[in-house]
Amino acid sequence: MIIEARDITLLRGPCPVLDQVSLTARPGEMLGLLGPNGAGKTTLLRTLSALEQPASGDVLYDGKTAHELGRRELGRTVSYLAQSGNIHWPMMVEHVVALGRLPHDHNPQKDAAAIARAMEAAEISGLAGRTTGTLSGGERMRVLLARALAVEGKVLLADEPVAALDPYHQLHVMELLAAQAHAGVTVVVVLHDLTLAARFCHRVALAHRGKLVATGTPQDVLTPERLRAIYGIEVETGTRHDQPFILPWSRAAIAP
Amino acid sequence: MSRLALSAAQDPHRRDGIAPGLLVGLLCLLVALLFAISLAIGYAPLDWDAAPHEIRTGDEGLASLILTQLRLPRALLGILVGFSLGLTGAALQGLIRNPLADPGVIGVSGSAALGAVGAFYFGAAALFPLALPLGGLLGAGVATALLLGLAQRGISTTALILAGIAINSLAGALTALALNLSPSPYATLEIVFWLMGSLADRSLDHVVLATPFIMLGVILVLATRRGLEALTLGEDTAASLGFSMRRLRLLVIAGTASAVGAAVAVSGTIGFVGLVVPHLLRPLVGHRPGRLLLVSGLAGAALTLGADILVRLIPTRPELKLGVVTALVGAPFFLALLLRLRGQEE
B165 with B185: CB under 8 angstroms? Predict the structure, then answer.
């Protein structure tokens, strides 16, 4: 599914949090949303998932608005992985994953198959009978990812899914997201890690003060000059096995 | 899926609860048993051979009067009131994702009590006996209208609960004012006794008055089952799964207000049932907030019937008030439960 934001403006009081933002993500693509804290990444992702209503502009899902799709159909189509990984009750892992089936008409066989597929894809099949209170941070994020995958939507929107994870689990979750994109899902992911963005995303969009300052391939967008201007950092860059890495090294002399 | 089921069955950490159908069945049996016991005991001796015959023949003898005017209303109200408290306690805990919530937090029970106290204070209660529950319903209705107005405007769950707490405080203050200004010590005593909560001396009129409101409340609250389940992962995730948060709040608040308002209007305030019962049942349903609703209602009915039987078995005069017993038993039990749960978590 093509998800398209057209001239989105969103206000908090008089201040625009998003200012005439346009963005398109396509099936099979992993699109990274980057930018400093407060740039509007999360708000943009929430707007893409219809959790926020823009003051002007449209979000279109294969050309249809959220209203035209309807709440239920939207729930089946667009899967949203929230930033706060709260699981409020110590439920069993497979019951948490099963929550992803709620937008669908109840069908025990279909649901069980989808839950099993999602758990397999997130590599948590071994955790099925555990309660969420007994999980490590990495296991927990994969459980939440499996919940989002159990929706079996055409779009997956993930808000900083690797922020609280150790490097091993960061790579693991990014690989799982990449596999989803490879399978034809439209994946939009908010990231802070520049190397992960450069390595895993087909395209990235760089946000700054409510605007998208650049959209394109990581090589084109994440240049040292731009990162200095937007993040206020000096970076070391290079390639390893033909794959780019970007290492934040020091704060720039001039603050952003 | 079979492989999954196998690995889950072997996991020693597995806490799935017992099969939902079995749990509901067992609780229904328990409620039926306690209902029968509740019918069987009382101060006025009941001739069990005569009662059915008298009811069949329409002969208003002593036995049929005791059964239909004393025992039956009491047992039926035990089920209705207990079910309302257990169910709505579970729903509110699910809505605010906090195990500290009980049906009292939205202020409807305090307002219902205030309405009934108003009926005492202005003398309506002396004119006709149903003035009390009608006053209670009126009080609950005012508080409900206020809450629904706020919920309709789309305010957050936290703000809604804070509004409920404010309503509760105001209702409490006005109730205290009525006591303060009450014309005679006898009236004060009557109000205080009523506030303690009881199912004694209620008639079938009380049952008829409360049932539609309680039924409506139960239907509304049970309709939130899937939404509450989704709320486990927070409001954003629930919304992304296709649930309207505003609708969910409206249903829980309207349902709780209707059921608990009517329950308090006929029985006074009965504490701890709505708080303790969901805690007790939660591990048995694998902590799933949607699954918890029905079983909490049934367990609430069982607990209230049980406590009301206990009240009649303890030979004190005047009879212990039901609300006193549920709090006396509930509070220490609740503390013990919390200590035990804490022990498990560590």
Answer: no
